[in-house]
Every structure is written in structure tokens, then in C-alpha cells.
Amino acid sequence: MVKLVQRRNEPVVVQTVRSATAATLAYVAALWLLGNQPPPLLAPLTALLVVQVTLYATLTSGVRRVNAVVAGVLIAVGFSALVGLSWWSLGLLIISALVLGHVVRAGEFVPEVAISAMLVLGVSHATDLALSRVLETVIGAAVGLLFNTVFLPPVWVETAGESIEELAARMRTLLLDLGDELGGHTPVERAAAKLHEARRLDQDIVRVDASLARAEESIRLNPRVKEGLLSRIVLRTGLDTLEICAVVLRVTARTLTDLAKERREEELLPPAVASALKELFLNMAGAVESYAVLITTQISTSAEEAETFLVAELSAARASREHVAHLLLATVQEHPRQWQLHGALLAEIDRVLDELDVEKRSMRLAEELDRYSRQRRERYPRLDRWQRRARRLGRRVAGAWWGREAA
After folding, report:
1. How many angstroms separate the Cα of 296 from the Cα of each of 228, 300, 330?
2. Rounded to whole angstroms, how far apart are CA atoms 26 and 43?
3. DSSP secondary-structure letter at 53?
């Protein structure tokens, strides 16, 4: 019971309760409107399929579901009146229904077109069943849409932010573990274990991406959300940055594993270099954590504080990087073995610091906003022209009003 209460805000739990409630309401509405002979079970089934975890998905799935059922019913009525039911007409009906499903853009409900058509074609009173099936579907879809309109689905931005912070925490832990492995002799098996851990970050990124996709969809058409576009772009560009850093961390773990293979009977790095690299990885770990807090913080004051921490961590990391570079150069000049791995390690560190840079983040946000505006203009040219005309008219009215006030 305690675990259930703790998980009450998870998407699966919320969706289960909402779907069951909407399906029950749809069945009650269908009983009231159509009676119970036969029981209108298609209405709760439609509501169950229509009520999705986001308002946008509910609207789109409701339209596709109704399209699918109506298309299947219409084609079945036509077949019933012209050719009736036989083995060849059934095959032709299924092919025609599936093609029609793609024509009406039924999406994942394309099989529903053929199912509806077969159910209607297989009865003697095709017209009565067709009307009943359409009415039940419309009632279920209407109840589902009304339910999600009145009881708006949750906005999953906060859940997506928590997923991003968990990903950053795992990356931070990996950086700290890599720093701890640098001192003394590092067996190849232990270095390889860290490499496998770095590879598992790919699975974490897939889960976070799914959570972010759900959050992006929950923002669309949701009246409770203000500045939804900005929130979506901030989280998406932030996840892209962390994904690049995760890839670089995997390459870093690969570099350290290769270095451990070459130095099986000795220290991985000289003590001074290992100590400096450990401090550098500590600063990088703090920068990753601060970056995640920055992109997931909605309150401006907290965001400014997170940005301050990020700038401080990056500044310390760059200073540590310069110190490490000089130490590695001196080490290579004295013993040039595996110098290419030392250079690769520095290049990977530079890439992470560059990706986390505050100015680069601002540039990415501006580029994404420009790209979205450009795509929107290309997709809806008439709407863009109307908006430009409205802005020009507003400026003219404001100018005339201010001119009259000045006079």
C-alpha cells in the first residue's frame, strides 16, 4: 500500500485510473442513450482506447478511431448491398478496408476499419448493426474527449526533468568512479567494468528520451501550460547535450581501458597526473550536475543560481584541464609511450567542457527557436501572413493612439 501511494503520480498509475473512469462513464452514457439490448460494450472500449496520457494524444486518437469505424461501416454496408458475404468478397473487403484505413489516416486504428467491416458484413441486418456500431463509437469517443477536456491530463514536464536529473546523476557517479580508478595500478578487468557501465548510459538515454517525448506531447494543446514551446526546447536541447557527453564519456572509458591494457604491471598514470585528473573529473562531475539542474529548473531565481554554479564548475574544470595538459606533456616528453592515448583523453575532456558551455547552450536555444519559427512559417504560410498583418495593424493603431495623445 505504501508503494502504491508513492507511485500515485507515475504515468502508468495515472493512466490506469483515468482510463477505467472514462470507460465506465462511456458505458453509463451509452446505456442511457441506446439501452442495454445488446449491451453497448463498444462505447467503453472506444473510451478506453481514446483516453491517452496526454490531451493531444486523446484528441488525435479519438479522431482516428471514429474515422476508422465509420470507414469500415460504410464500406461494409456497400459490400452487403452489392455482393453479400462469400469467401472472395470477404478477402476483397479486408483489402479494401485496409487501403481505406490508410486513405482516411486512421493510423494505429487501420485494423479497426477491417474489423468493423467484417462484423457488419457478417450479420443479416447490416444497416441496424452499422448504425449501432457508429453510435457506440461516437459516444465512447465523445466521452473520452470530454473527460480529458474537463479533467485535463497531467503535464509530465516535471517527470521528464527528474529523469534528466537522474541521468546526470549517473553520469556524475561514472566520472567520480573514473577519477578514483586513476590512482595506482588499475587492472584491465576493473577498467573494462567502467566501460560497460558507460555503455549502459545509452539505455538510460533511451528511457529519458521516451519520458521527454511524453512531456512534449503533454504540453501541446494544454491550456494549463504557458511558454510550453520554450520548456520543450530547453529540455530537448539539454538532453541532446547530455547525450553527446555520455558518448564522450564512453569513449573516455575506452581510452582508459586501452591504457590499462598497455600498463598491466605498473601504475596507470604517474601520481601527480592521476591526482590532477581526479580533481578535473570531480569538477566535470559538478558541471554535469549543475547543467542538469539548470535545464530542469523552471523558477528564474533558481535557474540563475544553477547557472552560477555551472560557470564556477566549468571555470575550475578548465583551470584543472590546463594543469593536466602541462603534466601530461611533461610525462610524454619523458616517456612517450601511448602518447596518443594521452592526447585522446585531453580531446575528450575538451569536448565535454565545450558541450556544457553556457554560451553554447544559449546559441543552441536561439537556433532551435529560429528553426521552429521557420518550420511553422513554411507549414502554415497563411497563418504567418495573418499574424504579420495583425502585428502591423496593431502598430498602426498604437501609433495613431499615441499621436492623438501627444496632440
Report:
1. 13, 11, 41
2. 6
3. S
Burial of residue 124 (CB within 10 Å: 0-12, 13-18, 19+) is exposed
Q: Which of 135, 173, 182, 102 is nearest to 31 (CA)?
A: 135
Three cell numbers, residue 324:
593536466
Q: Which three cell numbers stand for residue 313?
A: 564548475
Task: Flag whether pLDDT at 223 surpasses 60.
Answer: no
Q: Confirm if 203 and 250 have CB atoms less than 8 A apart.
A: no
| 217: nearest Cα among 303, 155, 147, 136 | 155
CA distance 198 to 252: 9
Q: What is the pLDDT of residues 165-181, one digit of tens each?
A: 899 999 999 999 888 88
pLDDT score for 249: 92
Q: Is 176 exposed, middle or buried (0-12, 13-18, 19+ CB in 10 A)?
A: middle
Q: Cα–chain-centroid distance for residue 177? A: 29
Give which of 313, 310, 164, 305 is closest to 234, Cα–Cα.
164
Does residue 230 contact residue 157 with C-beta atoms inside 8 Å? no
- Separation of alpha carbons 337 and 317, rounded Å: 26
Per-residue 3-state assignment (H helix, E strand, C coil) for 20-51: HHHHHHHHHHHHHHHCCCCCCCHHHHHHHHHC
pLDDT band at 376 (very low <50, low <70, confident <90, very high): low
Global pTM value? 0.69
C-alpha 397/C-alpha 407 separation (Å) is 15
> What is the chain's length?
407
Cell numbers describing residue 22:
472514462
Q: Which of 274, 255, 276 is nearest to 266 (CA)?
A: 274
CA–CA separation, 223 and 215 (whole Å): 14
Span 23-72, pLDDT tens digits = 888 888 888 887 777 777 777 877 776 776 666 666 676 677 777 777 77
Distance CA 124, CA 194 (A): 68
The model's confidence at residue 124, banded by pLDDT at 50, 70 and 90, is very low
Cell 539505455 belongs to 203
3 vs 233 pLDDT, higher one: 233
